[in-house]
Amino acid sequence: MRSTGSTSRSTTRTTRTTPLLAVAAALATLLGLLALASPAARAQSPGTAATGLHVSGGRLLEGNGNDFVMRGVNHAHTWYPGETRSLADIKALGANTVRVVLSDGHRWTRNGPEDVAAVVGDCKANRLICVLEVHDTTGYGEEAAAGTLDHAADYWLSLEDVLAGEEDYVIVNIGNEPWGNTNPQGWTEPTIAAVKKLRAAGFQHTIMVDAPNWGQDWQGVMRADARSVYAADPTGNLVFSIHMYSVYDTAQEITDYLNAFVTAKLPLVIGEFGGPADQWGDPDEDTMMATAERLGLGYLAWSWSGNTDPVLDLAIGFDPARLSSWGQRVFHGANGIAHTSREATVFGGTGPDTQAPTAPGTPAASAVSATSVTLTWPAADDDVAVTGYDVVRVSGTTETPAASATTTRATVSGLSAQTAYTFAVYARDAAGNRSPRSATVTVTTGKDTGTPGTGCAVGYRVVNQWPGGFQGEITLRNTGTTGINGWTLAFAFPDGQTISNLWGGTPAQAGSAVTVAAAPYTAAIPASGSVTLGFTGTRATANTAPAAFTLNGTACAVS
């Protein structure tokens, strides 16, 4: 992503407005489809055998032939070298890969051999595959301060002694977004030259190359020229990286691009992507993540923390206990890291784990109220380890997800009073294998006598503001003793403010009155837990905070 100053978030330009550029983009897309789809293009280039991470049949494989799908995030190490706990925190949230921002010294302070060796060691200690990238190339040809791919290649050559022997653990991403929107066709030859330079020097690592157009390839140059770039690598161990931001705001654009590479058996990863909207559009991160999971493609979200514009911080202030709504989406949402990441087998496994856990024991009910029930069950067994349990509601042959837990206890909330429910439990392991279903238990909820012990508090703050607009954050806290499963927040703006875009929920506004319905990944708020929403909006001169909030019709304390 294009960097602004000494921190990490960029203003990624799209510039898709003129008819001439639109025609050029359409022509490039057509040429790319023809080039990728031809029988000759589909033939895999013969590469020399690799001992570590390598490419075969359009797939990224480990040295033992196990398919490896990246699930991770970007971390701005070069600007925050003191945040040494970040990789451990990223791993603890389930990632199997981290893309680490480095500098070759052209634009920022150079990361020397000792520092890079320490980063690689940190990745290995935390059982993470390490994608190392030079950020100084960002936007070359349009960004005056950007360095060349040739300069970046020389930097990698200076690290040859550090990286030799790390082919199982390290991927070399030559340069971040190494071309802007000015003459993006100029990207191809320098990319080929940089790949050849590293191979001629003896580098056997898998190499990753980023697209032009600030990584987004909206004019289709990488898509059209990918086959010729791939053929220039004598080892065949080359992976292409597309960065998906506001250019990719429709499902069709995303699926077309990703499917083109898969059909052509050309390896591709989403090396950066964002979800929150910006002034150029609203990226469709749901389709990005779902399509990557369906096609078995890697993705690396931008970025862990420290962005100049914090809207893309996954963790607030580098604190893994304070995930933003964007962080919650990436780690815990549908097709997110926690549910789809598989650790590289080089860290101890000998092959993919295909054995499912045994069925959990029969669940037992306790703490039955009018709207919730707590279930406990005997643990399942697994040949590696059980990593979680899924509670389902059973009605005939239909199952409905009810709760998830990492222990043998879960509370199911949002139930109706004086109603019979049947529950069962599945176990799952880190490889995604799911056990047979447990025996069922049927529970009848109690009479509705009110909801003592429930409550809420809302924190509202303006993160940033500018003439005519602002960015806000709303934190919803469940101060009660029972979980909340599904919610609607309501409040009124006092100064005519309007919401433009919101992440973490679905907003609706009529005059000053605003309601926000929960997103699937923010719907559950456990007792003493919280979720955070972010939004951008418009304003006049004044920007007073709302004075009152309700959650599901209940007045909340304002904190």
Automatic annotation (TrEMBL):
Residues 1-43 form the signal peptide. It comes from the Bacteria. Residues 449-559 form the CBM2 domain. GO terms for biological process: cellulose catabolic process. Its EC number is 3.2.1.4. It is an enzyme of class 3 (hydrolase). InterPro entries: CBD2, CBM2/CBM3_carb-bd_dom_sf, CBM2_carb-bd_dom_sf, FN3_dom, FN3_sf, GH, Glyco_hydro_5, Ig-like_fold. SUPFAM superfamilies: (Trans)glycosidases, Carbohydrate-binding domain, Fibronectin type III. It catalyses: Endohydrolysis of (1->4)-beta-D-glucosidic linkages in cellulose, lichenin and cereal beta-D-glucans. Residues 359-448 form the Fibronectin type-III domain. Gene3D superfamilies: 2.60.40.290, Glycosidases, Immunoglobulins. One of its GO terms (molecular function) is polysaccharide binding. PROSITE patterns: CBM2 (PS51173), FN3 (PS50853). CDD domains: FN3. Belongs to the glycosyl hydrolase 5 (cellulase A) family. This is Endoglucanase.
